[in-house]
Write a structure and sequence with these properties.
The structure holds two protein chains of two kinds. Chain A is an alpha/beta fold. In chain A, about 40% of the residues lie in helices and about 10% in strands. Chain A has three domains: about 60 residues, Alpha-Beta Plaits (2-Layer Sandwich); about 270 residues, no CATH class; about 70 residues, 3-methyladenine DNA Glycosylase II, Chain A, domain 3. Classes of the chains: A alpha/beta, B alpha+beta.
Chain lengths: ~425, ~140
């Protein structure tokens, strides 16, 4: 059995200077600096990529598949995330991206936005059920789903049991290609062009189902250069642009809410903002809310850390590209809703990485000791000890992962006492 | 069974900027103790309601969290003004929230009924001019 969890987000040790940037920004307190270098606590990491964004030394990286990995398959299909369209300023149409990908060596390009069309329809169906706990929470952002597993286990049953657009797109793309060209499905590789490390982890370790329909994930950054040269002479052909404006709109925060057409929905972007709203949902403060769409990245998927273009520019590009029709409607072929596995086949379990101990009594004893230690700490939350806050430092001491003298302020106090003792000692020996 | 964990949080009257902070800390504590999701949800709802009641209606008070192996207990104790008619206060839709609270979206008259609905045991004692004490417990098993 695999004991170590797969994570796309990794640390390149020799580049790390042991600063506190990532330490302070991690939403699940999963980073510690020990011995002058950052370490990621595997069980807590949700692959949101915040640390990649804030590391000035580029010591945090996302592991994705190289473009060359597509050659493992006889037929290769690219699955471009709709946020990819936002990366190109002078784009004359989405079809240019699709044709550009084909010129790069893919046999076909299938829009993930089309998967989003189908997923939107499935969520609309689910929202008709009044028995689902409200607000229903989107399952689209894997970093938010993992955040809920770690920090909001009591909200797991709010997560809608519909698979991600990327998964649905892979299923449809593979089957349609196999049928059209009369080839075996096992000869077809489906590669997601990803803006986000959390999706990469989601392909290796799916949440809600056993095996991903996606065979690999190539980052936008990896193909950006090559694709932008191909796009320059790629033809526009609107007949191959099959996803609706609503599906394409999923690239931006608020796009999913619009596509599931709920007036009473709330779209929140940025992981800290999402945490605040999830706290409110937990307190039942948003009792009239029907649907909650949370995106870990600012702006939604256009803000993914593996994108090239800045998220505001990308957002505006996507807005333009998804305004082709006046009153857009989802493009879902009849039969699609029953032909594919659109729903989760496995329940989502809480992640107990924040728990102090499996035994309640022992956890309570630890909590008491944490309080005692915390009271003696300076409360600067400076991070010099290598833990993100004084409170987590107290937790780390109790869990045996740090000692009190790792706090430079405590150390200074101790040195003062020792210096005084030496003076005293020197004076007594003189007499 | 002896109480093994006790944490108290002072709550100021009218302090909307810090309203909800005690609840957030209480939730964090319970999650670290590994309290089940089901219990957590009930405590969260009741805890936020009772904390907001202290902010909106009381002259200030204390929210206390107690945990023992069998249950989680929340005690809200304030220093006034006291509730003249408890039965009426427990009625859904009845509220004495002031204009300021209402403009912030409170005062739906669901606070006390919601607490009672979420707690395993709910007790309220009040004396006008003295104060109100609400004790709620949530069974762990």
């Amino acid at each position: 059995m695999e004991t170590k969890r797969f994570h796309s987000v990794r640390l390149e040790g020799d580049k790390c200077r042991g600063c506190t940037n990532c330490l302070k920004r991690c939403p699940t307190e999963a980073i510690r600096v020990r011995g002058g270098r950052a370490h990621i606590i595997d069980e807590r990491c949700i692959d949101c990529g915040e640390c990649i964004r804030v590391c000035g030394y580029h010591a945090k990286v996302a592991v994705t598949d190289p473009l060359s990995s597509i050659s493992k398959f006889k037929y290769k299909i690219a699955l471009p995330a709709p946020s990819l369209y936002g990366q190109f300023k002078e784009l004359r149409g989405i079809s240019q991206v699709l044709n550009g990908l084909k010129q790069m060596g893919f046999d076909d390009a299938f829009e993930v936005a089309r998967g989003a069309d189908v997923v939107s329809r499935a969520i609309r169906e689910r929202l008709k059920n009044p028995d689902l706990p409200r607000p229903v929470i989107s399952s689209a952002c894997p970093a938010i789903v993992r955040l809920i597993q770690v920090r909001f286990p009591d909200l797991i049953d709010h997560i809608v049991d519909v698979r991600q657009p990327m998964e649905v797109a892979a299923m449809i793309a593979r089957r349609e290609f196999a049928r059209k060209h009369n080839v075996s499905e096992s000869d077809i590789g489906c590669f997601f062009i990803t803006p986000c490390p959390a999706k990469v982890t989601g392909i290796r370790n799916p949440i809600g189902h056993e095996k991903s329909a996606v065979d690999g994930a190539i980052s936008v950054l990896e193909i950006y250069g090559l694709l932008s040269t191909q796009i320059r002479n790629a033809p526009v052909d609107i007949t191959i642009e099959t996803a609706s404006d609503l599906g394409v709109g999923w690239a931006r925060s608020g796009g999913e809410s619009k596509a599931v057409s709920r007036e009473n929905s709330l779209a929140v972007d940025g992981i800290e903002n999402c945490i605040h709203v999830l706290e409110e949902i937990e307190d039942n403060r948003l009792r009239d809310l029907e649907f909650f769409e949370g995106a870990a990245c600012t702006g939604g998927c256009v803000g993914g850390p593996l994108n090239f273009e800045n998220n505001y520019v990308a957002r505006s590009n996507v807005r333009r590209l998804s305004s082709r029709t006046q009153e857009p409607e989802l493009n879902v072929d009849s039969g699609m809703m029953t032909k594919y596995d659109l729903y989760a086949s496995k329940s989502i379990l809480p992640n107990s990485a924040m728990k102090l101990d499996d035994d309640l009594l022992e956890a309570m004893r630890k909590m008491e000791r944490i309080e005692e230690i915390y009271k003696e700490l300076p409360g600067y939350d400076c991070g010099s000890c290598g833990s993100p806050t004084c409170r987590t430092f107290a937790e780390d001491i109790v869990q045996g992962a740090a000692t009190k003298m790792d706090c430079i302020h405590k150390m200074k106090e101790q040195l003062k006492v020792m210096a005084q003792q030496m003076v005293n000692l020197a004076q007594t020996t003189r007499e | 069974m002896a109480v093994l964990l006790e944490k108290s949080f002072p709550v100021e009257a009218g302090a909307y900027t810090t309203a909800g902070e005690a609840s957030t800390t209480i939730k964090r504590t319970l999650k670290q103790l590994g309290i089940s999701a089901d219990v957590l949800r009930h405590v969260s709802v009741a805890c936020y309601e009772v904390e907001l009641n202290l902010v909106i209606h009381s002259l200030g008070g204390t929210l206390t969290l107690l945990v023992d192996p069998e249950k989680v207990t929340l005690i809200s104790k304030d220093v006034g003004p006291g509730i003249p008619d408890i039965e009426k206060a427990m009625t859904e839709g009845f509220s004495t929230a002031n204009e300021e609270a209402r403009t912030l979206g409170f005062g739906a008259g669901m606070g006390l009924p919601n607490m009672k609905r979420n707690a395993t045991n709910f007790e309220i004692q009040s004396e006008v001019g003295v104060g109100t004490t609400i004790t709620m417990s949530f069974a762990l098993a």
